[in-house]
Amino acid sequence: MALYVEGLSKGVPNGGMAQFQEMMRQQLESSMHAELEKLLDTTTGAEREVSKKDFEGFKNLFHRFLQVKGPSVEWIKIQRPPEDSIQPYDKIAARGLPDNVADSLNKLVVVKLNGGLGTSMGCKGPKSLISVRNENTFLDLTVQQIEHLNKTYNTDVPLVLMNSFNTDEDTKKILQKYTHHRVKIHTFNQSRYPRINKESLLPVATSLTMTGQNAEGWYPPGHGDIYASFYNSGLLDELISQGKEYIFVSNIDNLGATVDLHILHHLVSQPNGKRCEFIMEVTDKTRADVKGGTLIQYEGKLRLLEIAQVPKAHVDEFKSVSKFKIFNTNNLWISLAAIKRLQEQKAMDMEIIVNPKTLDGGQNVIQLETAVGAAIKSFDNALGINVPRSRFLPVKTTSDLLLVMSNLYSLEAGSLTMSPKREFPTTPHVKLGSSFTQVQEYLTRFESIPDMLELDHLTVSGDVTFGKNVSLKGTVIIIANHGDRIDIPAGSMLENKIVSGNLRILDH
């Protein structure tokens, strides 16, 4: 971190400043390399080899981190993307589909980012194993979607899961249940990088083990790691040798990220010289998405701009819906051959995200991460497609879970679609309070999921429970004050109502 190095150089005469800073950088880098070697010496065999590969990537990231000076973008150079660089989805879909949809599908691999845990929703283990609809987990729905494609078109679209060391073991155990499904499933692991002490800029881990306090010394370095990990695993080459050309990458908790045949057709039907190597699905920003990354034109290239890269003075401008109208859904279509080329040329360029954390013992650390979409500027003929909001249906909280469990959506072959009975295609705004944060507690508060077909806005705060067959319409606000409890009776219909105080239904 150049700022760290600059802090050490106070009092050095101006002429020697650059030399001093370079010397400090080299010193920090050689200390880091020595510590990494010590860590490698704590194990042998296959684990050592895997960690050695991981550390090569980490060294490269750390080297770049020490060089970075201030914000990675100059605000004045930011331009709106040219009209043709972000295409409306309707224009892509209007071209129709060819007769040989199967030929296009056989060139495709579906990749799901499966490195996250369910801790934010109070669940242990991988997030992908949380039940979201009719006892189906995120992973079940994904397998059902791809199996449906393979059966319908008689194709062989494989599923690839990018696991992390946090999710790999539990995910592999569960994969056995899909043995008889018509989907080939592959996995590979994200890298494991060492967390760095914020003061010394050295690893906090003392060995490569994942036990005791040492477990806190490691982290998976963000989904930008997909390119190197995929390449290093050997799976990339294996899939290319099978005739696969593109991957469709998305977060496993985005239930809207299904294979879109129109986007796929657009990709594979480009003339050879103009082959599009990267498509990012973007969608219109609403007030709820102000922090989402957006596409800009920068130094002649399409580029992803994340809030972490924005100078403080311009954060409000970045959040404005009028200037930056779209955001990245993290649904990406990427050429396998291009990933291989860029990895071999070491030309994959992604900004570093510095993520500060405090460990359980109070120690301040930083983790260096990258984002998969940030590599867009490294690919040729990259394109944004402005897709319908329905392709962005992430489940990050129990408020999101309530929406996807409700009658707002119907489930068919693993895909959720908005019910035709809803008059407006917009999703209601749901905000459940802290009593609903954990999935287990959330489930005990609903005897059945309310009818939400005509709901616009729901806010629930405090100790509130819902009886069977409750119907919510318009704007409903339910607030139980501290010490009070509100039981919404079975069969109630609340339309444009505020319920507060103490409404407790007692059996007698």
TrEMBL record:
Source taxon at top rank: Eukaryota
EC class name: transferase
Origin species: Seriola dumerili (Greater amberjack)
Chemical reaction(s) catalysed: alpha-D-glucose 1-phosphate + UTP + H(+) = UDP-alpha-D-glucose + diphosphate
Residues given in the record as UTP binding sites: 127, 190, 222, 253, 396
Entry-linked Pfam families: UDPGP
MF (Gene Ontology): UTP:glucose-1-phosphate uridylyltransferase activity
UniProt subunit comment: Homooctamer.
Gene3D superfamilies: Hexapeptide repeat proteins, Spore Coat Polysaccharide Biosynthesis Protein SpsA, Chain A
Keywords: Nucleotidyltransferase, Transferase
GO biological process: glycogen biosynthetic process; UDP-alpha-D-glucose metabolic process
Annotated family: Belongs to the UDPGP type 1 family.
UniProt KW Transferase keyword: yes
Chain sites annotated for binding substrate: 223
InterPro entries: Nucleotide-diphossugar_trans (IPR029044), UDPGP_fam (IPR002618), UDPGP_trans (IPR016267)
Pathway the protein acts in: Glycan biosynthesis; glycogen biosynthesis
Function: UTP--glucose-1-phosphate uridylyltransferase catalyzing the conversion of glucose-1-phosphate into UDP-glucose, a crucial precursor for the production of glycogen.
Name this protein carries in UniProt: UTP--glucose-1-phosphate uridylyltransferase
